[in-house]
Amino acid sequence: MSEETLSNLLKEDRRFEPPAELAAHANLTEEAYARAAEDREGFWAEQAERLTWSKKWDQVLDWSDAPFAKWYVGGELNAAYNCVDRHVEAGNGDKVAIHWVGEPVDDKRSITYAELQAEVSQAANALTDLGVGTGDRVAIYMPMIPEAIVTMLACARIGAPHTVVFGGFSSDALASRVVDCQAKVVVTADGGYRRGAPSALKPAVDEARAKAAERDGHTVEKVLVVKRTGQEVDWDDSVDVWWHDSVARASTEHQWQAFDSEHPLYVMYTSGTTGKPKGILHTTGGYLTGCAYTHWAVFDLKPETDVYWCTADIGWVTGHSYIVYGPLANGATQVLYEGTPDSPEKGRWWQVIEEYGVTIFYTAPTAIRSFMKQGREIPDARDLSSLRVLGSVGEPINPEAYVWYRQVIGGDRTPVVDTWWQTETGAIMISPLPGVTAGKPGSAMIPIPGVSADVVTEEGESVPNGSGGYLVLTEPWPSMLRGIWGDDQRYRDTYWSRYAEADGGKGWYFAGDGAKKDTDGDLWVLGRVDDVMNVSGHRLSTTEIESALVSHPKVAEAAVVGAKDEDTGQAVCAFVILRDEAGDGGEDIVEELRNHVRKEIGAIAKPRQVMIVPELPKTRSGKIMRRLLRDVAEHREVGDVTTLADSTVMDLISGRLTSGK
Ligand code: WTA
Question: What is the rounded average pLDDT of the residues 542-566?
């Protein structure tokens, strides 16, 4: 974001006070900030009381081995029991947990907490029969169907950490994740529906299993397959098992067991600054506390009356924390939607809100921007008056999109909570509170009670109001990542080395985002300061895409940058040097390379633009100056080139581009 846009942003003076009615009955009030600041651990102990513990903790936080935290030390609980069984025991068995809406119209099913309990128990029994024991990893590669949630909870129930891989990822991406966490079993479906057509998933699992075996000598022992679309699948009797033959026939009784508060709950892979995705590890007690508390506080959830809907995919952390663990721990009723927003009609989402009377709606700015483009007639055609709180996540929300969201979708009555957090933080960290905060379009405002954040200089000095710097979290929090799967050093290096000396040597958590404090001290998150891009709210690493490009036989070198894009926030732009023997690469080289990235990583990583260039701008030490490439990709005048080893390179690149070659 340029300095100019920044200062425009900071001049934003529209304010939206909380509706009086909401403020009067808000779950969390102004006092919570002071209470949490006074006794942070006491505050978090209170939040953990939202859960049902089999054994109470002895100590709230053990931070003696920083940055490796332990929360609710000595406590024991079962996450699935907390998300399902206890609601049935409390007499809410007939309450709907999930209104599932399939993509094909009329393909829908409402599942009560009692039904969910039976299905999760069956799946837990079936996974056990397949040889999954406590501590074994299970990979999940599924469409947005209830069985995906059932599988996650079944894993939690038996203490087998799950790793959900987004269904849009390629077989290669799946294979590398399966290998990294040594998954014993993969749970998948024959396919899912995408814009009215079945789209296969099982073949990617077959390929990934073969790759894991050939390349890394890792054996996936069993593949459990849900029949969703009925499409043809290859079948290996020694490995493949149908869900309807195993889970559906298993006993609906399953005795859950309590696990240590720090027992691993799941690993979620996310992009970092190197080519290899990081397996972010979350554990049980602290994570579930963070999810339950934030989902209740930030959305002002009233479980008896609200109908909540988060549009994320369960393949991302938002789906984990705000579809599965937060809402279910809170006993909420929610909508789960399988499809895309605009299929079979542009207004499908608004139709779903009308049909189910959704009251709390949580989505991403990229979706909001695409609806703005389609025009307000589409949502206006539906009755959206049930909505009372709107949420945004994944990237900075531009003020115009915020105001449109509030006015058009929220009928100018609903607060918009712009929630900043990350895969690593596990739960929302910075956000307005709907019954407390006068919202400012574009600002995530201040940390929620219990969380401590700051914006600091390179040297770790807190910046004054009106200035920008790096976003840090200055105190540990319950849902924080516990590490990177199998790589403690990378965990320290990535998050804790930059401000290692802070807080008496315990360090601060470096988020990788730039931020600014406005004159009131409210925070504006500006985006990544590292080599991570944010495309439609999805995290992608520049290096990962560069490695994919370089794996193509015609490519000698590649540099990737995220360039500003009106629809997707950022877009992938690649600069590629071809190998000599590839000549000019042929007429279709650009398409060939774009599709290659799609095959290697997945459709979300497919570059918007591939530019074939003769050279790349490098410093004398050989580091690619992406800043200059970003100037080119964003059609700006190229900035300072004096640190380049060869300052004529940028002329060559710009010249090549303007001559259209
Ligand atoms: C960005 C998604 C501005 C940020 C939950 C962060 C945001 C990265 C916001 C994490 C927001 C997320 N305002 N930026 N409200 N929410 N981000 O791990 O750059 O997929 O570091 O987690 O998304 O992405 P992740």
Answer: 91
Q: What angle do CA 601, 606, 610 make, to 5 degrees?
A: 125
Residue 402: both structure tokens together: 């915020």
Spatial distance between the Cα atoms of 129 and 3, rounded to a whole number of angstroms: 59
Distance separating alpha carbons of residues 366 and 389, to the nearest angstrom: 18
Contact 616, 649 (CB under 8 A): yes
Q: What is the DSSP letter of 427?
A: S
Task: Provide CB contacts within 8 A for 247, sequence distance 6+.
Answer: 119, 122, 123, 126, 147, 150, 224
The rounded Å distance from CA 320 to ligand 1 centre is: 15
Q: How far apart are CA 385 and CA 413, in angstroms?
A: 9
- 219 forms beta bridges with none
Q: What is the pLDDT of residue 439?
A: 94
Q: What is the DSSP letter of 580?
A: G
Q: How far is the C-alpha of 35 from the C-alpha of 169, rounded, in Å?
A: 44
> Ligand 1 mean position to 424 CA, how many Å?
10
Instruction: Transcribe 249-280 into DSSP letters.
Output: GS-S------EETTSEEEEEEE--SSSSPEEE
Q: Which of 395, 418, 424 most suits a substitution to test ligand 1, by most atoms within 8 Å of the C-beta?
A: 395
Whether ipTM exceeds 0.85 = yes
Counting from 1 in the atom list of ligand 1, the atom nearest the Cα of 392 is 15
pTM over 0.80: yes
Q: How far apart (Å, rounded) are the C-alpha atoms in residues 261 and 283?
A: 7
Beta strands at 108-112 and 96-101: parallel, antiparallel or unpaired: antiparallel
Question: Using CA atoms, how far apart are residues 171 and 47, in angstroms rounded to an integer?
Answer: 40
> Is residue 1 predicted with pLDDT exceeding 60?
no
CA angle 441/445/448 to nearest 5° reads 140
Strands 240-242 and 609-612: unpaired
Residue type, 595: N
Which residues, at least 6 apart from 113, have a Cβ–Cβ distance to it below 8 Å?
84, 87, 88, 92, 93, 94, 95, 96, 97, 331
Give the strand pairing for 538-541 and 532-535.
antiparallel
Question: Residue range 547-565: average pLDDT?
Answer: 92
Residues belonging to the binding site are: 194-197, 318, 394-396, 418-423, 513, 528, 536, 539, 550, 552, 555, 598
pLDDT tens by residue, 354-366? 999 999 999 999 9
pLDDT at 318: 97
User: What whole-number distance in Å separates Cα of residue 363 and Cα of residue 346?
Assistant: 16
